Amino acid sequence: MQKEELIPKVGVVTEIRQETPDVKTFRVVGTDGRKLFEHIPGQCAMLSVPGIGEAMISITSSPTVEEYMEFSIKKVGVLTSWLHAMETGQEILVRGPYGNGFPVDTTFKGRDLLFIAGGIGLAPLHSVINYVRAKRENYGHIDIVYGSRSKEDLVDLEEITNEWMQEKDMNVYLTIDREEEGWDGHVGFVPNYVQELNFPTTETAVICGPPVMIHFTLQGLKALGFTDSQVFTTMEMRMKCGIGKCGRCNIGDKYVCKDGPVFSFDELGELPDEY
Amino acid sequence: MITRISSEKLPELLQQISEQEKLYIPVDKSDKLSVYEEYAPGKVMSLKLNTLRSAKDFFFPQVQPMAKFRMEGKKIEVMDQRTETEDYCIFGVRACDVRSFDVLDRVFLADPVDTYYEDRRKHATVVSFACSEPSETCFCHSFGIDAAKPDGDARMWIANGNVYLEGITEKGEKLLQSLDLAALGAAADDAAVQEVEAEQQRVHEIQKRMPLYSLKPTDNRDKELEIFNAPIWKELSDKCLGCGSCTFVCPTCQCFDIEDFDSGHGVERYRCWDSCMYKDFTMMAAGTPRKTQLERFRQRFMHKLVYYPIRNDGIYSCVGCGRCLRRCPIHMNIVKVMKAMEEDA
Ligand SMILES: Cc1cc2nc3c(=O)[nH]c(=O)nc-3n(C[C@H](O)[C@H](O)[C@H](O)COP(=O)(O)OP(=O)(O)OC[C@H]3O[C@@H](n4cnc5c(N)ncnc54)[C@H](O)[C@@H]3O)c2cc1C
Ligand code: SF4
Ligand code: SF4
Ligand code: FES
Predict the structure, then answer these.
(1) Domain presence at residue A105
(2) What does the pLDDT average to over A48-76?
(3) Is the domain of B23 the same as that of B162?
């Protein structure tokens, strides 16, 4: 029979890394040991375990990684707790990829880029940042601002210090919400830090994180002179099918699962304020 | 070509079709209710206007098994539960419900194709049934649907003590050709064509006297935000109970949920109808973006009358079947919404 998008494939979890107290990164391959499917940075996959639940999760690894896919998952409920409790070698169900992804080969190409993430919001940005690093010659200068509640809540800290911070023509600015022993970096909320850093409006920006953080960061960027059309974000809505049919993620004339989750703020401005 | 047989021969016609393929017809359940059932000798076709539940059930059933899983240790086995449907015939579908198939096709057959739906859709031959007595809750006319000349693979009229049959698509022609209509005393002459034309005119005249005849949807595709933010929604949604009845009886409502059921011998994944009228529908960790019934009510009607048309060349996701007018416990309905939108716009 013809392929059915809603029937998942079996994936094997080959590696689990504890990133923060409530975030783990899972490496997944197919039962044949190869990557399950190709994707565009910013796309997601529906992960599930029979009888436990299904959840939409961003693919955090870059498409340029040929061997596997990775997912960074925050423990919030039934399925995510189950995933946090499992061990390597466990099989899970995966379907996708879903969504539009970031316009890495069009709008972003040749541009200076500014990535701003809060908390688990780094998950979808991780993929695009590593993609841009792998195709460094296609993009201009890169700035990254990443903040979390505390030092231990910063996801991927090792990779950020050892790789991102060493990358040429790429600046990484980290911040945590409150002073803390053993932290001599910046302290303060992401939106304020972004404004302090006074980024040039020649950059194309992407913001990912909790709704409040997105809201205030956008205000900050606008105060710096950024326009809605040069700032992108990824949206979260409740999802079931991932392919624009179950109606759950519908906002205005868009389905977040299919037309998104990546939108520019001028696209969002045309939609009813229901997210 | 229009073929005429005596309406006394209708049971024999049904019998003949049922010998070709599985046949479903509307049958009366009470003096007010009819439902689709599989034909069996002796079952009489209902002449009522609309079945309680719409014909979407054939392609998009309330519960659809999707796949089965078996878990053993760390291993998971996926078992595709799909089997190809055999050809079947849905007989006696009204014009509004036939149009609803187009509305659903644009969702389920859009890339990537929903193979559960496609399979049932592809194997069905739809024989529609022209309305002879449109009711006052009917407003298919508002959406450019002709109740006196329904679409489908083949269509049927019952008038003047006769059944008139006309093939429309290749599938419909094939069905008609497979029958022994001559044995039913069939005639296909110019008179049959004229009789059907006269019947159509008669029905159009009745429609003109119906209360909703002049109701027209307003093309609000360029007013998405304006209508969304209009003050009309408070009054319209004030009494809505959020019961979801309107969504379940609606032939074009297509929202669904996906859930797992653990039978003890493996886990079955199925999908089932869901409703945007329910609070849980969009519930997330940080709460739901549609906190009040006003927002959920607005979603249903904005989707049918504004969002869907934006995505689908101006086609509305309502076919004027009137089911929601008859079923809503608080007598709210899409007609009131259309009128409010028109006044506001
Ligand atoms: C496009 C998209 C990308 C996402 N990417 C990631 C990611 O990379 N990493 C990550 O950790 N999480 C991500 N999420 C959120 C993730 O899908 C939810 O946290 C997950 O569904 C919760 O599943 P659960 O079974 O553990 O929780 P449940 O037990 O089902 O519910 C726990 C709580 O989470 C809520 N919830 C259910 N579904 C969602 C949802 N889709 N979004 C938000 N809350 C939900 C429930 O209403 C409940 O309040 C993403 C969500 C979307 C829509
Ligand atoms: S909204 Fe009401 S009248 Fe329109 S198709 Fe649905 S049930 Fe019928
Ligand atoms: S049937 Fe009426 S009360 Fe029930 S959800 Fe629909 S509009 Fe609300
Ligand atoms: S998740 Fe089903 S329509 Fe988007």
Answers:
(1) no
(2) 95
(3) yes
Residue A188 lies in a domain: yes
Mean confidence (pLDDT) of chain A: 94
Given B208, B240, B267, which residue is the final one in a domain? Answer: B208
- Per-residue model confidence as pLDDT tens digits over A80-93: 999 999 999 999 99
Ligand 3: residues with CB < 6 A are B 240-246, 277, 328-330, 332
For A52, nearest residue in chain B (alpha carbons): B260
Tell me the residue range of the domain where A14 lies.
9-98
Do B72 and B160 have their domain in common? yes
Question: How many angstroms is it from B325 CA to the middle of ligand 2?
Answer: 8
Compute the half-sphere exposure of residue B183: CA atoms within 13 Å on the CB side of its CA.
11
Alpha carbons B291 and B303: distance in angstroms, whole number? 17
**Same domain for B172 and B255:** no
Is the ipTM above a cut-off of 0.85? yes
**Which residues span the domain enclosing B295?**
224-344
Residue A68 reports pLDDT greater than 70: yes
Residues 6 or more apart whose CB falls under 8 angstroms from that of B148 comprise B130, B131, B157, B199, B200, B203, B204, B207
pLDDT, tens digit (0-9, with 9 covering 90-100), for B193-247: 999 999 999 999 999 998 899 899 999 999 999 999 999 999 999 999 999 999 9
pLDDT digits (tens, 9 = 90+) for B165-195: 999 999 999 999 999 999 998 888 899 999 9
User: Which DSSP string do the residues of B188-201 spell out, in sequence order?
Assistant: --HHHHHHHHHHHH
Q: Do B193 and B247 share a structural domain?
A: no
Cα of B338 from ligand 3 centre, angstroms: 16
What three-state secondary structure class fits B241? coil
Q: Report the residue of A2, A4, A212, A251 to disrupt the B interface, i.e. the one with the largest count of B CBs within 10 Å.
A: A4
